[in-house]
Amino acid sequence: MKVEQRAAESRSKAALSDKETLLKLYREMLLIRRFEEKTAEMYQAAKIGGFCHLNIGEEATIVGTISALRPADYVYSTYREHGHAIAKGIEPKAVMAELFGKETGTSHGRGGSMHLFSQEHRFYGGYAIVGQALPIACGSAYAINYQGTDEVVMSIFGDGATNIGAFHESLNVAKLWHLPIVFICVNNLYGMGTAVNRASAVTEIWKKACAYDMTGERVDGMDVLAVRRITDQLVAQAREKHEPSLLECVTYRYRGHSMSDPDTYRGKDEIKEWQTRDAILSLGEQMKKQKMLSDDDIQRIDEEVTAQVEEAVKFAEESPDPDPKDLYRDVYAGEAAS
Amino acid sequence: MAVLAMRDALNQALREEMKRDESVFLLGEDIGLYDGSFKVTRGLMKEFGEKRVLDTPIAEEIIIGTAIGAAMSGLRPVAEMMTVNFIMVAMDQVVNAAAHIRYMFGGGTKVPLVIRTPGGGGHQLGAQHSHSHENWFAHVPGLKVVAPGTPADAKGMLKSAIRDDNPVMFIENEGTYAVKGEVPDGDHLVALDKNEVKRAGEHITICAHSRMLIVAMDAATELEKEGISAEVVDMRALRPLDMAPVIESVKKTSRLITVEEGWRSYGVGSEIASRVYEEAFDYLDAPVARIGAAEVPAPYNKRLEKIAFPGKADVIVTARALLGKN
């Protein structure tokens, strides 16, 4: 699919140049890339079951948005959320253990790839029904206003979710009730195998914010600094003014919709073209030019995150399965009910 | 002890819980300024303000979704679905989200949420406004489902539901809001998992919940005049389903009728009958008889509607037949 205004400049020109921040963004993106590559390998080795949706290619969008949040801010995500969970601070080993279905996973093996969760990290879950989490995210934002605290909710979803009723109901009340929420649309150009222009009457998703008199922005989702700059603005707007917004990050998943996707609906050239704009390589090159990073540093960081991923796999491998006697645990809170 | 209509007993429960706990808030369509479609929330916006009595757009999915997220974030929402018919629009939120979130997230969170919603037919409202869907919800692990049939139970169970840490489907009935009964003052709590014999009898057991409880009680009064002593068990707790009083009663009477306002197929009566067959088969002297609505979309015409929904006469005729007295 052809994308017009693919790399539209964000309106933000705020500086984002200190070495420490850039290194953090670089390392996180690479960690997610290596984690997901290993996830694919583990899936093919049948260590991971069910459906498995990878974030490879979308790292700049993930890290650029979530890094703008505070630890107490909420993130709601989708079934393609391994990277989101890691970016919000969940240990890679707890994520990998969940993919392996182990008791030590984020959801004690009850959720799997599509249902990661952490109360401690305010990672409020991966949801496997398209568009389902947006109304729930609005509920957390309502609770923030109700309790008079200053957290922000980030609700992340794909382009496909913007065609479902829940999306429109959510944007409507977010504006109506002054909710401190930022809606992040990860526009990776395909809702499963159906291109945006075959599913949505409006292919520039950010424009859908106009219907609710809401701030709408579009950013190059392959440019982590651009994503971070605009997200900083929108998060501040939500936190300080309780003005919600919709940010469209135009990005691309290098792999299929899920591990079982033969990927016949898009050309190999298209995938290659997007890979030439790889976010991790781009930031690495930029930092090298600015003398913030050497080839040795790049090599070292890669080895470090790769070791972290290996450690996560080892942890997952060695962790126990849930005990069969606990099958009924946590169907209900506070008691055993049948 | 005051005599209150069902709607006022519910209103009292909401008011008391909102006073007791600041995290309790209400949301729904026309529950505030309009005072509620059935006046259950009358006066509450005036008393507690717009933050705690939130009028929403007519958008069921956002109502339930907002309530779930708020519940996960420390509040105790009570969502009103104006009628159970409209909740079809939000079933994804009720089943895929509210019911499953705690389990699929490994117990990492909880969803202390009450969804109040009236069902039932008999008001010439046609196919899309006359449903009883408690069996749909009672099918789902993770939900609790209650359907009280007296004002006292309505108050006591609603207060318990609000204090419960799980999503509770609180099924009301459009035909019972004006029904009056004695209601204990103050902190009257009724357990969500206990069914109860509402009328003692010897010859036959009748199980019913919500409006059909009233129908069953009326039928039992009539049957008494014919020398048939019916025991009526109130099935107000549908999930978890408390079968103990039913099993005990069947062991005494050996005959069982189930009455529900919805369709019989795959219904509440089917579940009760199965459990009786499993737990008390040897005590039965006759097959369990299930009474429910005619298996048609609810008709508008008054005469057709009257025969489509179960009533006192159906219970009486069935009881006689089961006892060989027709």
The percent range for strand residues of chain B is 15-25%
Q: How large, in whole angstroms, is the Cα Rg of chain A?
A: 19 Å
CATH topology of chain A: Rossmann fold
- The largest beta-sheet of chain B arranges its strands as 3-2-4-5-7-6-12
- Say how many strands of chain A there are: 8
Look at the structure and name the CATH superfamily of the largest domain in chain B: Thiamin diphosphate (ThDP)-binding fold, Pyr/PP domains
Low-confidence stretches of chain B: none
Structural class of chain A: alpha/beta
Query: Gap between N and C termini of chain B, in Å?
Result: 42 Å
Order of SSEs of chain A, N→C? HHEHHEHEHEEEHEHEHHH
Order of the strands making up the biggest sheet of chain A? 2-1-3-4-8-7
The general outline of chain B is globular
What is the assigned CATH homologous superfamily of chain A? Answer: Thiamin diphosphate (ThDP)-binding fold, Pyr/PP domains
Helix content of chain A: 40-55%
Instruction: Using the 3D structure, state the CATH architecture of chain A.
Output: 3-Layer(aba) Sandwich
**Low-pLDDT regions of chain A:** none
Put simply, the count of helices of chain B is: 12
Roughly how much helix do the residues of chain B carry, as a percent range? 25-40%
Describe the structure.
The complex is a heterodimer of chains A (338) and B (326). Chain A is α/β, with parallel strands linked by helices and 338 residues long. Chain A has one domain: Rossmann fold. Helices cover 41% and strands 11% of the residues of chain A. Chain A has a six-stranded parallel beta sheet, sandwiched between helices. In chain A, strands 5-6 form a two-stranded antiparallel sheet. The longest helix of chain A is centred in the first third of the chain and has 26 residues. The termini of chain A are far apart. In chain B, strand 13, helix 10 and strand 14 form a beta-alpha-beta unit. The model of chain B has no long low-confidence stretch (mean pLDDT 97). Chain B is α/β, with parallel strands linked by helices and 326 residues long. Chain B starts with a strand and ends with a helix. In chain B, the strands form three sheets. Chain B has a seven-stranded mixed beta sheet, sandwiched between helices. Chain B has a five-stranded mixed beta sheet with strand order 9-11-10-13-14, sandwiched between helices. The longest helix of chain B is centred in the first third of the chain and has 15 residues. Chain B is globular, with a radius of gyration of 19 Å. Chain B folds into two domains: 182 residues, Thiamin diphosphate (ThDP)-binding fold, Pyr/PP domains (Rossmann fold); 127 residues, Rossmann fold, CATH 3.40.50.920. Chains A and B meet through helix 5 and helix 6 of A and helix 3, helix 4 and helix 5 of B.
